[in-house]
Amino acid sequence: MKKIFTIQALLMAGIITATSCKKALTEKVYDFISPNNFYKTEADAIAASNGVYNMLLSFGFYKQNLWTVDMDADHSSGPTWFMGSMGAGNPQDYWGTPNIWNDHYVMIARANAVLENVAPMNISEAVKNRTLGEAYFFRAFSYFDLVRLYGGVPIKVATVASGADLFTARSSVMDTYKQIISDLKKAEELLYSAGDQRTGEPGRVSKEVAAAYLAKVYLTIGSGSLTGANITVNTGTKTVWGPFTIAKSVVAGMENVNSQLYYDSARIKCEQVIGSNKFDLYQNWLDVWKISSRNQGEHMLMANARSGGLSTDDLWGYFSAARPDGSNQGWVWTTKNVYKNYEKQDHRSLYGFSHQWTVFGTNFYFPEEDTEYKTDGTKTYIWNKDYDRAYVTKFANVSSQSFQDNDMPFPILRFSDVLLMHAEALNELSPAPTTAAYTPLNRVRARSHATDAPAAMTKEQFRSFVLEERGRELLFENNRRFDLVRWGIYLQVMNKMSVDQFDIVKARNARNLLLPIPLTEINTNKGLEGKNNPGW
């Protein structure tokens, strides 16, 4: 049986206890962990690296607060009491927003500690390389989130214990990206390939994961800096749905950047990952979400949860149509507009949404026009406009269906994302879509039983189709808002929608392009000079 790597709650801190003041002064302490008495063995190095992984299941990452950022997009809806802060463009009203900044810098601090202390250790080359590679990767991973959410941020590449300045000024957007790219290149050089025993248990980052993230970074810069381009998005208001075309903006901080150069770099990295043959799509879309499929197949990186312990999440509880007792519902769903963006035979629609569910003792079906869901042979279901909600099923397969004790790992990176990035990059590098660009796009669609993408599309049509395909394939996997922002169309899309069918306010202004830096950071970090992001 394969051993699957799960994130452990490893805390790099010791507790000093004493029974009297005299003993506290005279007794030698053995249980306080510091760099001087901890980094001794390979097990210590691995434990320190596990402490970095552990942050993925903190509140500021995938336990809750990071994926809630994706509620601030056109595909997400929910009850007003849940969506009224982040989902309505009011991140300062959400208690969890500061955790995103704080926990990312905790991950960075832990990665820096690993880099400083593991490098001089006398341990096997394989463990040292892997551990250092993981630290470089997660430092880049954190800064990639931060730069997309906050713009240029303070860059810290050393611990305070090593003498680094506690107060750091913000770097520019592109300087932050340069640090990210540098770290990912080092990670790729040090890490081993997926399947190599030196990579460790399934679930750990590999050389290919670092390469895929380089592609993601390059693609983000390429699309953000692209000028003179249009893109068409399928969205709608409460009553009207359809495509509309937007002239994209250049993302702030990416002015005068060579878009083609970064798109070509993204192409190279995608082809490197695809050509490695280390990852592939599951033939059946339903297989992607099985418990037995975790950390393998197309799952390149996951935030692994574990029921019955500290490393849990509640993805199942937030996204499920109804909890087993029938008295409550999930807090996140899509609008019917998103559901309409799929072909009917597409498995991501046919099986990807809860078409029938029971709540408060009443049986409901979704959507209104699909009357075949009125009965399941034993129960009769009714349609009600207040429950016309498209709940996803991808987070349903958990070991324990109990509130706040679930083990559904968050899918951070899937191979289908790499294929869609490859299609996008190839399209942007050619005057018109090529057969090579269609191939990865249709590979994703074929797996889900969708028809091939329309033939003979223009470059603009292909660009728009890939963006919408990313929305269909990666729904609620923390990509939609990032995609809208990197393309420079976030404000236009949200303001076109204005208010969704559940009366969630989607209208936004320029300040919503970035999150507010926590006030505690503004007040304590002298390098920020008391300045927050524009409008906050």
Mean pLDDT: 90
Radius of gyration, taken over Cα atoms and rounded to an integer in Å = 24 Å
| Beta-strand content estimate | 5-15%
Number of helices: 19
Low confidence ranges: 1-32
The side-by-side strand order for the widest beta sheet comes to 1-2
Strand element count: 6
Largest β sheet strand count, sense and barrel closure: 2 strands, antiparallel
| Shape verdict | globular
Write out key terms for the chains shown.
disordered N terminus; 536 residues; two-stranded antiparallel sheet; mainly alpha
Short recap of the structure:
With 536 residues, the protein is mainly α. It has helices at residues 21-26, 35-38, 42-53, 59-63, 80-83, 97-118, 125-150, 173-190, 207-225, 259-276, 315-319, 336-339, 347-350, 415-428, 435-447, 459-473, 480-486, 490-497, 519-524; strands spanning 230-236, 241-247, 299-303, 356-359, 362-365, 410-414. β4 and β5 (362-365) form a beta hairpin.
List strands and helices in order, with pairings.
Elements: H1 21-26, H2 35-38, H3 42-53, H4 59-63, H5 80-83, H6 97-118, H7 125-150, H8 173-190, H9 207-225, E1 230-236, E2 241-247, H10 259-276, E3 299-303, H11 315-319, H12 336-339, H13 347-350, E4 356-359, E5 362-365, E6 410-414, H14 415-428, H15 435-447, H16 459-473, H17 480-486, H18 490-497, H19 519-524
Antiparallel strand pairs: 1-2, 3-6, 4-5
Helix pairs in contact: 3-6, 3-7, 6-7, 7-8, 8-9, 9-10, 9-14, 10-14, 14-15, 14-16
